[in-house]
Amino acid sequence: MFPIPPYVHTALAALRDAGYEAYPVGGCVRDCLMGVTPADWDLCTSALPEQVEAVFAGWRLVETGVKHGTVTVISEGRPVEITTFRTDGTYRDHRRPDSVAFVSSLREDLARRDFTVNAMALGLSGDVIDPFGGQADLRAGLIRCVGDPDRRFSEDALRILRALRFASRLDFAVEETTAASAVENRALLDSIARERVFSELKGILTGPGAGRTLREFAPVIFQIIPALAAEAGFDQKNPHHIHDVWTHTTMAVDAAARSPVLRLAMLLHDVGKPDTFFTDQDGVGHFYGHAARGEAMADDILRRLRCDNDTRRRVCLLIHYHDIRPPQTERAMRRLLAKAGREAVGQLFQCWRADSADRSDAVRAENRAVIDGAEAVLETVLAGPSACFDVKSLAVNGRDILAMGVRPGPAVGRTLDALLERVMDGTAPNQREPLMALAAEIINRKKTDKTHKTREE
Fold first, then answer.
1. What is the pLDDT of residues 249-267, one digit of tens each?
2. Helix 361-383 to helix 330-340 angle, to the nearest 10 degrees?
3. Higher model confidence: residue 425 or residue 203?
4. What tens digit of pLDDT does each residue of 333-362 get?
5. Per-residue pLDDT, 385
6. Residue 233 domain-assigned?
7. Does one domain contain both 243 and 369?
8. Residue ranges of the alpha helices (H) in 171-326?
9. What does pTM read for this prediction?
10. What's the CA dihedral at 341, 344, 350, 354 to 10 degrees?
11. What is the domain extent for residue 219?
């Protein structure tokens, strides 16, 4: 019933042969019960850390968690975390226990864990040791704290976001008392390192239940990204939109592919709307400039969350362009490709489709036709013999321009940019000989212009 890999069996057998209790525990048990192959296997044991090290003397060990009772053993080239049965002391920083006490009871160890679905172990005969009803909650599709939710979240505030991540990833509901406690204790998240918050946020966004989780736990999301709170209930007063800004945002997240960049872009794509809203003389709402405003706000938000630079730049680029009309001509498409890059344009089409998903039937059909038309143009441009959208893709390079007598410096780049402009306009092929001739013409023209200017002076 439980496909325990050989490398895990080896570690289990070593502990049990030495006379200690040892059990697979936590997420690997949950995954097995759900028919999912676990990515990692953790063991809990009655052996103290020094006893674990003695059992595995001669093996490769990683001792980064020894203070809290964890020794990582490399078994047949794979890591296995082995943690001594323990209870936790106080949590003054709402993240890590100030101390731990090693105990001899598996039940005591399971009682300290976060959620019932993570507080199960596998017994010697393959039976599930489940003192807190984790199997029943799995069947019911519930995330429930072990014991008192207020205590669990006060101990480690990151568990609030973990509850949301599991709900989104497993497409589960959060049990009523646990959900109320998560919202009530959300301010504790202010004490958590932004890197950890961002990691959990990405997990929430990339789950199949992301949109629903965002809507149900909006106060928690607004706690970590306060700028989004202005979207809640914000009436767009525009016939193109059928929901308030926050509801639209959550539905756009759901409509996007489950990649961190795309879902972060959809989470933040309309964050600039409340600041740019106005109504015309007919009472229709407009948000001119919201993409530029949103790009600046998203950049600040992602910096504060310690987002890596590459992801931040890619998300902000998509927000920058998300409100433009998808190009309907080859020339316009080439220009967009040159400015944004091939990868970003591909992702931009996904953003346009996700943004259009939450519209009235008529508007959605109209938008789909425009996007489909633009996609056909993109395919034509990419299939063309002169497909070239950046200087690096030109059939000539900087060395060629220098060989024509241009001095090193900005003039080389300007010449290449001029060549790229002609290729993108379709007035020059991306072939070496024609481009070399065109480069000579551009260079000679500049020399002539410079001569005329000198004479005039």
1. 999 999 999 999 999 999 9
2. 80
3. 203
4. 988 998 898 899 999 999 999 999 988 888
5. 62
6. no
7. yes
8. 176-184, 194-205, 210-216, 218-224, 245-255, 260-268, 273-276, 290-304, 309-321
9. 0.86
10. -130
11. 141-224
